[in-house]
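Q: what sequence does this backbone want?
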């Protein structure tokens, strides 16, 4: 047992996104928790809040598959677009992609943006908890870098995009890291 959690029993991370899973596994394993990927679909309700989407999804999953499991809803929020694509980030990435976001911001000097991650965990008894993390940055003028996934090539943290730094370095500062840190602290305290 570790932190009230049976470490022989892996916690399931419900996600279809390999990039998310790889980052989370590295961070959790670094703190002694093993996870396994559980690639099943769940409904994402229409809401402007990641927290609501995550909460609804995890309850649905618990009713179908029990606990312990968690999911992560995340998104890129661009200040001058009033937070777009936000909760619609996966759809925006699939449709207009990095290029489309750059086009939307073409000629716009206000490029402030942030990534947000919300983790929703549900235990075997159906008790759920939310953890969140944010990282602020800027949208670049062009795509740069080959690492990561999604909007990483256009998200500048300091002088470099998230796709120009290694996953190890992204994992030290990312929104996902910050949410996972709180999640792990909570798991250890259970
Ligand atoms: P699951 O719901 O199956 O986990 P998904 O990709 O659909 O996978 P989301 O609904 O949470 O996940 O969508 C978030 C989108 O935001 C994701 O597809 C990326 O395009 C983008 N995104 C989130 N975190 C990111 C990160 O760390 N780097 C780059 N893009 C990110």
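A:
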């Amino acid at each position: 047992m570790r932190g009230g959690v049976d470490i022989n029993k892996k916690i399931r991370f419900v996600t279809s996104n390999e990039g998310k899973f790889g980052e989370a596994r590295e961070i959790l394993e670094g703190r002694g928790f093993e996870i396994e990927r559980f690639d099943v679909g769940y409904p994402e309700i229409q809401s402007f809040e990641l927290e609501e989407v995550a909460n609804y999804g995890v309850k649905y999953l618990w009713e179908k598959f029990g606990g312990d499991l968690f999911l992560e809803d995340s998104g890129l929020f661009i200040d001058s677009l009033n937070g777009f694509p936000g909760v619609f980030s996966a759809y925006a990435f699939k449709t207009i992609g990095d290029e489309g976001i750059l086009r939307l911001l073409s000629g716009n000097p206000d490029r402030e943006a942030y990534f947000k991650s919300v983790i929703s965990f549900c235990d075997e008894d159906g008790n759920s908890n939310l953890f969140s993390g944010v990282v602020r940055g800027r949208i670049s003028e062009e795509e740069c870098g080959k690492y990561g996934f999604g909007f990483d090539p256009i998200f500048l943290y300091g002088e470099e995009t998230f796709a120009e730094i290694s996953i190890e370095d992204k994992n030290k500062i990312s929104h996902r890291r910050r949410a996972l840190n709180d999640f792990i602290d909570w798991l250890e305290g259970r």
